[in-house]
Amino acid sequence: MTKYRVAVVGAGAVGVEMIRILNQRHFPVKELLVLARTARPLTVDGVTCQVRETTAGAFDGIDIALFAGTEGEKGAAAAFGAEAVKRGAVVIDNGSDFRMDRGVPLVIPEINGDALKKHKGIIANPNCTTAIILMGLGPLHRAFGVKRAVISTYQAVSGAGAKGVEGLRKQTEAALRGEKVGDLNGFPNPIAFNVLANNWVLEDKGYSNEEWKVIKETHKILGDKSIKMAVTTVRVPTFVGHGESVWIETKKPISPKAARAVFSRSPGVRVVDEETPLEGINCPMPILAQGRDESLVGRIRADLFSKYALAFWIVGDNLRKGAALNAVQIAETLIAKGWLKPSVPSRR
Q1: 289 with 147, same domain?
Q2: 148 - beta bridge partners?
Q3: Pick from 326, 320, 333, 274: which is nearest to 298 by CA?
Q4: Residue 264: which CATH number?
Q5: What pLDDT score does 86 carry?
Q6: In the predicted model, is pLDDT for residue 346 greater than 60?
Q7: Cα dist from 43 to 1, 50, 71, 200, 240, whole Å
Q8: pLDDT at residue 274 above 60?
Q9: Domain count, the chain
Q10: Which domain CATH number covers 119?
Q11: Chain-centre distance for alpha carbon 121
Q12: Residue 301: pLDDT above 60?
């Protein structure tokens, strides 16, 4: 088996999950290099590795560079992505710097994996919210043709990075002690025992940048800008796992039974309902999705006023399918399709 030299760029929540998933999926790693702003030891699942400082020269001999990214900020890929490609690596970026670049494929392997064939060295991971939504909406679009979608999200604080997780923890502890929440840890208002629809920067027409990401990324991944969308993104006080309520209007008649059949044969999707409970639970929940590769779909129900409309609820681990897992799956697809060749031997 051909093995590859892999760099994980970023040692936060997503970077750690990338390392974990590479190990769990027995990815053919010849050499693993972990890069971050500063050098330091990093322990993942009881194994300690030495993180090196990210420099251009660190990418010499690297075949695959997985950039963990930080949502809403300029990621390391903006500074080092082109340099990594120049030195022979294929860059898979979880950040937002390249997603809407016309020359960069934006990929969910189960939905539009063939787009990888046209990559020019850089491949973009979608926003975690978009990835989980499209695991459900994408198969239905292929089968029935989605004309319109109304989506509301319930997003975990880990989508804001490690600081979001720590912020919720500290705020919850303060609230339970009866204290006033002081440090918001980057949230605009308290998140403990609260929900925030104002957690992102407002852009055009009153929509936040997070809402626009879902719309634009959906159009690009599905290759269909005609889909009319209304999106409301909300941050909720859960640690891991994004939930999304999705209503769609379709070109062909659609029923819960037909939609369920599509979900049941879609890779990476698991139906959780009264017929097929998971761990005795018949409704997808964030804590049920945490640590799982599948996106869990349930509450599949007809629109009572139209045979061309349907609603469903989908939940996924935002650190896995919403980020690290999708990136590793992109690398696996490149290898399986023969679209990735090892670069020159490491000169480090």
Answers
A1: yes
A2: 228, 249
A3: 274
A4: 3.30.360.10
A5: 96
A6: no
A7: 28, 9, 23, 32, 20
A8: yes
A9: 2
A10: 3.40.50.720
A11: 20
A12: yes
- Print burial letters for 252-275: b (CB count within 10 Å at least 16), e (below 16): eebeeebbbebbeebebbbbbbee
pLDDT tens, residue by residue, 46-99: 999 999 999 999 999 999 999 998 655 677 999 999 999 999 999 999 999 999
Q: How many CB atoms lie within 10 A of CB 39?
A: 12
Does 347 map to a domain? Answer: no
Q: How far is residue 308's CA from residue 341's CA, in Å, rounded to a whole number?
A: 46
For tokens 């139209």, the residue is 306
* List of residues 6+ apart from 205 with CB closer than 8 A: none
Task: Determine the Cα angle at 46 with ends 40 and 50, to 5°.
Answer: 20
User: In this structure, are 108 and 134 located in the same domain?
Assistant: no
Instruction: Note the pLDDT tens digit of each residue in 173-188.
Output: 999 999 988 888 889 9
Q: What confidence tier does 122 reach under pLDDT thresholds 50, 70, 90? A: very high
Domain range holding 49?
Answer: 4-126+324-336
Give the pTM.
0.94
Query: Cα(304)–Cα(307) distance, rounded to whole angstroms?
Result: 8
Q: Name the β-bridge partners of 325.
A: none
Residue numbers annotated as active site:
128, 242
Residue-level pLDDT at 343: 66
